[in-house]
Design goal:
The chain has 486 residues and is an alpha/beta fold. It has 2 domains: 175 residues, no CATH class; 238 residues, 3-Layer(aba) Sandwich (Rossmann fold), CATH 3.40.50. 36% of the residues lie in helices and 19% in strands. The chain is built from 16 helices and 21 strands. Strands 9, 10, 11, 14, 15, 16, 19, 20 and 21 form a 9-stranded mixed beta sheet that branches. α1 crosses α2. The chain is globular and about 75 Å long. It starts with 17 loop residues before the first strand and ends with a helix. The N terminus is likely disordered.
Length: 486
């Protein structure tokens, strides 16, 4: 294919049309944007953008990034013109295309569905689901969440002069903990929306030597960890971070009973204590499950009590999946809450290695600025006095504030892709624990490594060696590809 030529910039009296995006979408992760830019630089725009109309302002239904890059490089950008669409139809079409093709997080997908619900609240869940190409239950859960987030005295829809339904003017709206009168001119849903800025792992450009070093630092072992852990020398591992299988859950790799699970984990914990260095610790990511709706299985708490007595529970810690979807039991008939928290069972000696500076929590700039300016002497519920400015200055000096034991993180994507592993651990959760309890240049072990999130995070956070064990060979193949690609 011939390399596209730069456009010749010749003077012209004809005004060039302006282009405007139909909807705002989350930006592409930087590595994906860079890959698209490199492709267009080498081959030109291969997929035409989709626009509406021939006028002075052309609305881009699909292809904002392609158009931006083409303009930056001075390349022609082919167009497909779709005429006759109303503005509402343009936005619906754009959302449908991007939901189907873009690699969006669950939270970002739900935000697009939320935007459509705000625009067409009178439409049924089935209609919106069909138009956007998603399941109607997902639309229903987003609608329920939107309505439940509105702490208002009155909420109903009224028919406007244009024949379209829209939220009625509200008497009181809860915003940031304060009650305000609402004038009906803006969307209460947009005002009350909570946006989670889930950061993708930054792109890393590695030399062939660096990639080779990462590959050489990775050891993958196929088999049952109960027997394979016995072959690992005593006190040779700094940190164990793992997301084991759960009992009474059917997966493609099988199902294990509660009694068998306890037998497995007691063997793993025993070997973990032996192979960890004196100040090493282990984290087991676990989530309880139901025996039946309204009746929880107790295996998790039984394990925590046993492990705490047998070894030592350093601290109770939890991961909150902020984009967890409503599952069985959350409907009105059953009325249970959404399951979104997993326990990170942290076992080890009381003085185990931990680097708090590596995981300091950074508040927003607005919050930090407000606290710096607040010099008033305050009294807390316990009777102790404090000044927000003093706390803020201490946080500035340290580089952040003490982290909470509840880690709010979206499930997000996986660097290199988890290739549909049924229970992939979020990369950010793995990286957080690596920064906290894995010493620089330490050895990390995951006895249930699955698609390798822990190992990739360990390499990224400075491990000199990572060891993964899994009894499913194809998962080790996924891990191997991820290590090669990231």
């Amino acid at each position: 294919m011939a390399t596209p030529r730069l456009q010749e910039k010749t003077p012209s009296r004809a005004k060039k049309p302006r282009y405007k995006a139909v909807i705002e979408l989350p930006p592409l992760p930087y590595d994906e944007f860079l890959a698209l830019r490199n492709s267009i630089a080498a081959n030109g725009v291969l997929v035409p953008i989709l626009v509406d109309g021939h006028g002075p302002v052309r609305h881009i239904i699909d292809g904002n990034n392609r158009k931006f890059i083409a303009d930056e490089l001075g390349y022609d950008c082919p167009e497909i013109v779709k005429e006759g669409l109303t503005e509402e139809e343009q936005r619906l079409f754009a959302r449908c295309l991007n939901l189907a093709r873009r690699h969006l997080t669950q939270e970002q997908k739900r935000q697009i569905i939320s935007d459509q619900l705000q625009e067409t609240p009178e439409r049924s869940n089935n209609w919106i689901a069909k138009q956007l190409g998603v399941h109607h239950a997902t639309v229903a859960s987003v609608r329920t969440e939107m309505e439940s987030n509105l702490s208002i005295d009155k909420f109903h829809r009224t028919l406007g002069a244009d024949g379209k339904y829209r939220p009625a003017t509200m008497t009181k709206v809860e915003r940031n903990g304060e009650r305000h009168a609402d004038n009906g001119t803006d969307s209460p849903v947009a005002d009350l929306r909570v946006e989670y800025n889930h950061k993708q792992p930054p792109p890393v450009f590695r030399t062939p030597e660096e990639r080779k070093a990462r590959i050489n630092a990775t050891t993958l072992i196929h088999g049952d960890c109960r027997s394979l852990l016995k072959s690992i020398p005593s006190q040779s591992v700094d940190t164990i971070i793992t997301d084991p299988i759960y009992p009474e859950v059917s997966r493609e790799y099988g199902r294990i009973s509660g009694d068998d699970w306890h037998g497995l984990m007691r063997a793993v914990v025993g070997e973990s204590r032996r192979i960890l260095k004196p100040k090493g610790s282990a984290v087991f990511v676990l989530q309880p499950n139901y025996e039946s709706l309204g009746r929880m299985r107790l295996w998790l708490w039984e394990f925590v009590v046993w492990a705490g007595r047998e070894w030592n529970l350093v601290q109770d810690a939890y991961w909150w999946a902020i984009d967890a979807m409503p599952l069985a039991g959350t409907d009105r008939k059953c009325g249970l809450m959404r399951q979104s928290v997993k326990m990170c069972v942290w076992l080890g000696p009381a003085d185990c290695y931990r680097n708090q500076d590596g995981v300091l929590w950074t508040p927003s700039e607005a919050t930090s600025a407000r606290h710096r300016a607040d010099i008033a002497l305050r009294t807390g519920p316990s009777g102790r006095t404090f000044r927000n400015s003093t706390i803020a200055m201490a946080a500035d000096e340290r580089g952040g504030t003490t982290p909470f034991n509840l880690l709010p993180m979206a499930t997000g994507g996986q660097p290199g892709g988890s290739e549909h592993h049924p229970a992939a651990t979020p990369y950010h959760l793995a990286a957080w624990w690596c920064r906290y309890i894995l010493p620089e240049g330490g050895v990390l072990l995951d006895p249930f490594c699955g698609s390798g999130s822990m190992l990739v995070a360990g390499l990224d956070e400075g491990a000199s060696k990572v060891i993964g064990i899994d009894r499913v060979a194809k998962y080790l193949d996924i891990t191997r590809r991820r290590v090669h690609q990231t």
